[in-house]
Amino acid sequence: MKKNIQSIGKLCLFYTYFLILTPFFTTLMAATLSYQQQTIKGIITDLNGKPVAGVHIMTQKTKKGAISELDGSYEILANPDDTLVFSALGFKTLTVLISQRQEINIQLYEDATQLDEITLNAGYYSVKEKERTGNIATIKAKLIEKQPVSNPLAAMQGHLSGVNIVQSTGVPGGGFNIEIRGKNFINGVSDPLFIIDGVPYSSQSLGSNDVSGQIFSGNISPLNAINPNDIKSIEVLKDADATAIYGSRGANGVVLITTKKGKEGKTQFKANISSTLGQVSNFLELMNTEQYLEVRREGITNDGFGPFLDNPAFDFFWPDVKSWDNTRYTDWQKELIGGTAYRNNAQVSISGVSEGTQFIVNGAYQKETTVFPGEANYKKATVHSNINHQSKNNQFKIDLTTIYSNEKNLLPRSDFTSKAYTLEPNAPRLFDDEGNLNWENNTWNNPLASLEEVYEVKINTLITNAGMSYMVLPNLKFKTSVGFNIYDLASYRTLPSSARNPRFGFTSQNYSSVTTNNSKRHSWIIEPQLSWNKEWNKAKLNILFGATFQRENSQQLVQKGSGFPNDNLILNLSSAETLEILEDADGEYSYQAFFGRFNFNWNDKYIFNLTGRRDGSSRFGPGKQFGNFGAIGFAWLFSEENIFKGNSILSFGKLRGSFGVTGSDNIGDYRYLSTYNVSGLDYDGVSILEPTGIFNPLFGWEENQKLEAALEFGFFNDRVLLNASWYKNRSSNQLIGIPLAATTGFSELTGNFDATVENKGFELDLRTVNLQSKNFKWTTTFNITIPKNELVKFDDLENSTFANRFIIGKPLTIVKLFNSLGVDPETGLYQFEDYNNDGVISRVEDRQWVEDFAPKYYGGFGNTFSYKNVTLDFFFQFKKQKAFNNLRWRATPGFRGNSPVSLLDRWLEEGDTNSVQLASGGLSPSVGPSDLNQSDSNAAVSDASFIRLRNISLNYQLPTINNDLDINVYLQGQNLLTFTKYDGPDPEQPSSIRLPQLKQITLGLQVKF
Amino acid sequence: MNYKQNNICIKKLSSNFFRHRIRIINTLFIFLTIFSFTSCSDFVEVDPPKNLLISETVFNDPSTVESVLASIYYKIREHGIVSGRSGLTTLLGIYSDELDYYGFDINSAELYNHNIVASNSLLQGWWSNAYNVIYTANDIIAGIENSNSLTIDDKERFKGQALFVRAYIHSLLSNVYGDIPYITTTNYLENNSVARLPASIVMDNIISDLISAVTLLENTPVSGERVLPSQSVAKALLARMYLYTENWELAETVSSELIDMHTLELDINSVFLKESSETLWQLKPGDSPRNTHEANELIIHAIPEQRFALNNNLLDAFELGDLRLNNWIGSTTSTDGTITLHFANKYKATFIETESLEYSIIFRLSEQYLIRAEARAKLSNISGAQQDLNAVRNRAGLPNTTANTSNDLLDAILQERRIELFAEHGHRWLDLKRTGKARAVLSLLKPNWQETHLLFPIPESELEINPNLLPQNSGY
After folding, report:
1. B161 in contact with A at a CB cutoff of 8 Å?
2. What is the pLDDT at residue A217?
3. Does any CB of chain A come closer than 8 Å to the CB of residue B303?
4. Share of chain A above pLDDT 90, in %
5. Mind listing the pLDDT tens digit for each residue in A892-912?
6. Which residue in B403, B431, B405 sits closest to B419, CA to CA?
């Protein structure tokens, strides 16, 4: 350790020198010779001869800029031997030598897709879309801004091939699941590596189940801290060529989020306000009171308890049937999740430039309420700023980005959704005449009591990054990036006695409690890099060499205070009579790597890319810490070959491929050590120490081999762009929490397993400009992914603990189920196939029906129409998949609690062939198992494919009053329409306990000047 | 090669700093790069976090070993088969003829209705909590074996407790699951594919562990509040095991040793207070609640919030004038006066009580009197058996027993056990089971009764993970 600190010290010292000394060198070297400058004038037009305004003109050597006026005219001061670069959105960039001229008139060519212009961020380097050898999918600010969402992952949904994102709850501030090119590992998270402006950002929630379990299942997405409107682009690195430079962390893909930078041009002020209304996208059709009571009575009678129904002594046992008003009806979905959620959003941004320095500051505030009753709301304030500076000769550059966000989410402690589906339709009113919670003689648990039980989380996130680069020699650049990230979460959940039925005798002293979770994650990263570029006549060589030092510390303190003088003091832990520490944990993660890239480009025709990384991670035991990863990629731009030159149809053609190895160390810290855990609990005053688990000192990296081949075409002057990729990834050396028999004392052991999982698939991306005229433009995008997941190898699967979960040759996403044979007309009970013919239906032997829940294909389809000042976008997301339906949570009518009307189609008497078994009050021993088995059978699975109008956006740019003012009005909709045959709440996130996604409509105004 | 060149570079350049500044910078960067690449191979080694202790260090210090033992007692108090929350007391109570279940938990209802499925989560919880505790006990046994810094006395004290815990938990498991694995190692490879042993062999293992524990705990002083297992506790379980295995002589010998050493609590109202003189081992509650889980589970505050009420058959079984009827049983009537329910009220302090008055008693002396009575009856020591039985009866304000034959006495003892030990750790069910009376009693009360219900199913998920545990107990 000591040596370690010393070495970091040295490193820091060195950087200090570097920072202090660099400006001197810069000034010295900035002394460039200046020629006699002169003014150059001209007019810029398009091919139709119409003047083009807003064209950006720049001198290549002196880096002076100007912008063309409305009449297309421009003026710029330049040296006679300099070169002018004309660039404008929608036009091909033109480079013109001045060669002593004073007037230069320019005609610009329209560029449908700007293939040449698009530069992709590949993390440690950037690459032109045209020249990339790897698979990098991207979504730009323009598209993100059209979507009224508050999490960057939501903006990506459906737009990127190979990227499957599912929102886990409709509650604001909740999480997302993201999978890039399928599930690689049998265990462990499928989250990719997130990098925000060069700083790795853990997407792992620091939520504690003790606090937020019932509202978010503990999952709070740290990515909520990023305001989607601050994002310039999101790049998703998918294949080996793109991800191998991230080595051990690249196996699940890499998501690079780049925020907006200060840009050239005049000082600009931009303001944006919007208002959103949201409602649950789909409600279930549930029984009404009459139907419900009918099946309840029928069920109780079927169970043989009919006579007891008339005995008042047993009324307490079925209050819904006997004590409660049998004519009362409440639509609990409307009552509990039927509200309207409002979101108000305001943003202000200022950007500008002054002599080599650009800046942008963007502040945003958002408040979002929920569809639940009560005052729940989610507030978020974000500040994003970037300042970048380059020395006059462009030799030194510095770029500072800071993102700060403050989130405050106040919610009821549990999600009302499952209550909304299962509360009896004749359940009592919520409030009595005095406006107090109604407990109806203690016959029910008032759902609104949980409004008294508050969950609140405050999150502060800071991400800063400083990037500095310095041209050491004309071709040699030294660059370093220093990043720092703080994620600070403070949350609590209260259980006041006032939320409980007064008859229990709970008081603040003996019942009230508060559980708090204070968690922090700090990380820093330093990445020094050297890159060397050299161009010869036909060859270009690009070499990059760098190192990473990263350290992450996390802390979590979960405390529970109980017994308060009164409920008003419940937030004050010091007033608690007893204070328990449920968790006081910290973790340290150190990571070190060296990486390099070798890129060779011959004549812009053949490109060869070699990347590699050597990684060390503290998550592994001594001797197992280091691993090597690398990839090789190539591209052949065959359209540059002579036979295609001047071809009127094919404007661009590229064949590319890559192969490489990446890894994963996503298994948690300290898992290789045999340890005892200090939990803060005690027995008889002795604090307890418990064994953490079965340990395994020998585990190492998971490996992931990626192979990809792709064809890219551009037709009709790149108006039609088609990318088709095929990939095959194999993951082996699987780190598995191998389930252990309880007789070992624990439920799992982490170890490397000789199992191989293959993900292969086909991705297609199509972008077309269908129509383009002076006033009208119509573009279309389409993407589709056809993934296939397969467990290729698993030695001795039959004898392993996974014998009942997986099948070799089938996907990891399968479930084994009973084969439901419908209702027996004789007994009225569900019947199942007895696979082993032993006369007994057993869960171990007879669940042999296999269903796969992975999507068969998914993608998106979008269109943009613009006519003069009006732009209309609509985007559909589609997915073909299966999922558990409503039978998963209720397969028998008559149990206490409401259920879907589909259960009314029940067996009534011998000979009936209805689809649902006889009603039961849950008191008969034979109905229980067949109900349970039906929920675990193929009958509980149905098609959950959907086409969803994910986004629709209408934008109107007001005719300008003067040149500097730009006003836009927009109307946006999210999830407005869903086409599906699925009978559950939401085909995208099939669940009966989580709030489905909301459909939202946003009205907004943007002013720019 | 690089290294040499750079060295030469530095020498050359250092004198000509200004003229060759670019090269100097260049060199610095190369330096930096080399530095980055050679340093910090130990960068990726981190200190353990503050909430974890490395295993070896745990067994170097008696106080940390005590902490590991404390984790066992904490766990058995809070979760699993011993706990007043979800253990034998309530669940075997509703499974037999002691308690009626009114709650809405499906898993408990399965036990009450005798329609248990093998995936019952309560039974799964019993199984996994039990083996987790057994793992800890085995880790202590192995850890102190290898420790050089513990004294012999400490080692004996710790090992004695660990062996007792191992035997005790196995005994409870074997009572309800029948044939089970007997785990004596922490080796997960072995334990992961372990097979079940016949219940009789399990019993032999339990007895042999207990005999060692009794020896090892010889010199261990008894803790003031009797909240840790002592030698007497090991003997108490040993006597019970001899009774269960029908080893009457030894059952008598061991229970006699305890009866000679300890005294019955004569005040019927003090038996379950923490100071009760007859308590051999009790689990001290934590901060919330400060009293027993048993009281909070069993006491009915209001109707219809009841979960467990005493079955009428049990109430009817009390003799007239039994002090226990008034003092160990409570009742609550619904507001409209139509329903009155009785509940076990041995423990009286609920969560409302802010002072700690009662601990959860695991072993107490009156069981030993009844063990000895039964052993003596079997050995035809009629007067001895009567004497022991009367000790328990007289304390409850009842006259001497009238039974005077071996068989009558055995019936009277079974009846006395039913009353004395009701709602305590499932004694009633285990007595019905071992005396072969379960069918006669329960088939009347539980319509779903089957002969196979004498044993619970092995948790289904365990059979899936470890097929060596097959076959499942019959009937499931």
Report:
1. no
2. 58
3. yes
4. 42
5. 999 989 999 999 999 998 888
6. B431
H helix runs in A799-914, sequence order: 843-846
A926 in any annotated domain: no
Query: Which residues of chain A neighbour B338 with C-beta distances below 8 Å?
Result: 312-313
Name the residue facing A676 among B55, B183, B338 (closest C-beta): B55
Query: Range of A3's domain?
Result: 1-31
User: Is A490 in contact with A516 (CB distance < 8 Å)?
Assistant: yes
d(CA B273, CA A818): 53
Our CA-based measurement puts residue B43 at a distance from the nearest CA of chain A, in whole angstroms, of 6
Q: Kindly state whether B61 is in contact with chain A, defined as any CB-CB distance less than 8 angstroms.
A: no
A114: left (phi over 0), alpha (psi -120 to 50) or beta: left
Strand, helix or coil for residue A704: strand
Q: What is the dihedral of CA A69, A72, A76, A81, to 10 degrees?
A: 160
Q: What is the mean pLDDT of chain A?
A: 86
- Measured in angstroms, the CA of A674 and the nearest CA of chain B are apart by 6
Using the Cβ of B466 and the Cβ atoms of chain A, whether some distance falls under 8 Å is answered with yes
Interface contact B33-A545, CB threshold 8 A: yes
DSSP characters for B9-39? HHHHHHTTTTTTHHHHHHHHHHHHHHHHHHS
**Whether residues A359 and A401 fall in one domain:** yes
Quickly count: other Cβ atoms within 10 Å of residue A473's Cβ: 13
Report helix, strand and coil shares of chain A as percent, to nearest 5: 15, 50, 35
Q: Do the beta carbons of residue A411 and residue A375 sit within 8 Å? A: no
Q: Please check the confidence at residue A714 and state whether its pLDDT lies above 70.
A: yes
The answer to whether A558 and A211 are in contact (CB under 8 A) is yes
Confidence of residue A773 (pLDDT cuts 50, 70, 90): confident
Number of structural domains chain A divides into: 3
- Which residues of B fall within a CB distance of 8 Å from A694? 188
Flag if B70 and A25 touch (Cβ within 8 Å). no
- Quick one: which of A628, A534, A723, A768 has its CA closest to A134? A723
Distance CA A760, CA A791 (A): 11
**Can you read off the two tokens belonging to residue A658?**
């890559």
- The DSSP element (H or E) to which A177 belongs, if any, is strand A176-180
Asked if residue A826 is part of any domain, the answer here is no
State the pLDDT at residue B14.
41
Provide the residue ranges of all domains of chain B, joining segments of one domain with +: 2-31, 62-284+361-469
**The domain B62-284+361-469: what is its CATH number?**
1.25.40.390
A and B: number of Cβ contacts within 8 A: 272
pLDDT single digits (tens) A126-155 = 888 888 999 999 999 988 988 888 889 999
Q: Do B49 and A669 touch (CB under 8 A)?
A: yes
Determine the residue among B23, B28, B30, B46 to mutate to test chain A binding: the one whose Cβ has the most chain A Cβ atoms within 10 Å. B46
Instruction: Name the minimum distance, in Å, from the CA of B323 to any CA of chain A.
Output: 29
Strand partners, A401: A386, A465
Residue B17 touches partner A, C-beta closer than 8 Å: no
CB within 8 Å: B225 and A739:
no
In a shared domain, residues A91 and A151: no
Residue A404: how many CB atoms within 10 A of its CB?
Answer: 17
Interchain CB distance below 8 Å, A803 and B39: no
Tokens coding B222 = 């008894």
Q: Among the residues of B321-425, which ranges form H helices?
A: 323-327, 365-378, 382-395, 406-420
* Kind of pairing between the strands at A106-108 and A38-46: parallel
Hey, is the C-beta of B146 within 8 angstroms of any chain A C-beta? no
Pick from A473, A504, A896: CB nearest B301: A504
